[in-house]
């Protein structure tokens, strides 16, 4: 992957994904899942995107990373993609009975960030789905977390209008 990244960067191919997506006409929406790092692939996806979703795990480290990423998204908007919007922040690993996750989410809301509901609860099903290489709704369709994913999808679609 590192070799591919350096070759693409060297050839100034940062806009290739945007150009390819612009040619698609048969899809209403395309979702891109990028690595959890601000690298060539994430930058290319942000340049190509109309909107982005930002995952947030309920801890202080994730909060600091979130604000850093928000600055990066703003920089991409200013330099490459003035149409880019943050569609929402997806809360992961939420523990309803714990005070820290609720306090952190409340702080995001107080800061005016577009926090999406429902919050995705912490569950071992996520790790099981990664191990099985299968999304939770397919692995365990009746599980609470699968229902939350469907509700979150509906909330995202409703926001997209």
Q: What's the SSE blueprint?
A:
Blueprint: H1 2-10, H2 16-23, H3 40-48, E1 51-57, H4 60-79, E2 85-92, H5 99-110, E3 115-116, H6 124-132, H7 136-139, H8 144-160
CATH homologous superfamily heading: P-loop containing nucleotide triphosphate hydrolases
Structural class: mainly alpha
> In CATH, what is the class?
Alpha Beta
Strand content is 5-15%
Mean pLDDT over the full residue set: 90
Question: How much is the radius of gyration in Å?
Answer: 17 Å
Count the domains. Answer: 1
Task: Please describe the biggest sheet, giving its number of strands, its sense, and whether it closes into a barrel.
Answer: 3 strands, parallel
Brief rundown of the structure:
The protein has 161 residues and is mainly alpha-helical. The chain contains 8 helices and 3 strands. Helix 2 packs parallel to helix 3.
Walk me through the structure.
The protein is mainly alpha-helical. The chain has one domain: 3-Layer(aba) Sandwich (Rossmann fold), CATH 3.40.50.300. Helix content is 55%, strand content 11%. It contains eight helices and three strands; from the N terminus they run αααβαβαβααα. A three-stranded parallel beta sheet has the order 1-2-3. Strand 2, helix 5 and strand 3 form a beta-alpha-beta unit. The radius of gyration is 17 Å and the shape is globular. The relative contact order is 0.11. The mean pLDDT is 90.
């Amino acid at each position: 992957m590192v070799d591919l990244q350096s070759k693409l960067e060297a050839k100034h191919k940062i806009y290739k994904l945007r150009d390819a997506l612009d040619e698609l006409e048969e899809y209403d929406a395309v979702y891109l899942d990028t690595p959890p790092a601000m690298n060539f692939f994430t930058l290319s996806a942000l340049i190509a995107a109309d909107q982005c979703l930002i995952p947030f795990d309920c801890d202080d480290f994730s909060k600091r990373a979130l604000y850093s990423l928000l600055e990066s998204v703003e920089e991409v908007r200013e330099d490459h993609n003035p149409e880019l919007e943050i569609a929402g922040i997806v809360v992961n690993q939420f523990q309803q009975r714990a005070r820290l996750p609720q306090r952190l989410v409340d702080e995001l809301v107080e800061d005016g960030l577009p926090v999406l509901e429902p919050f995705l609860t912490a569950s071992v099903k996520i790790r099981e789905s990664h191990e099985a290489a299968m999304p939770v709704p397919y692995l365990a369709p009746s599980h609470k977390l699968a229902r939350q994913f469907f509700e979150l999808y509906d909330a995202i679609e409703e926001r997209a209008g």
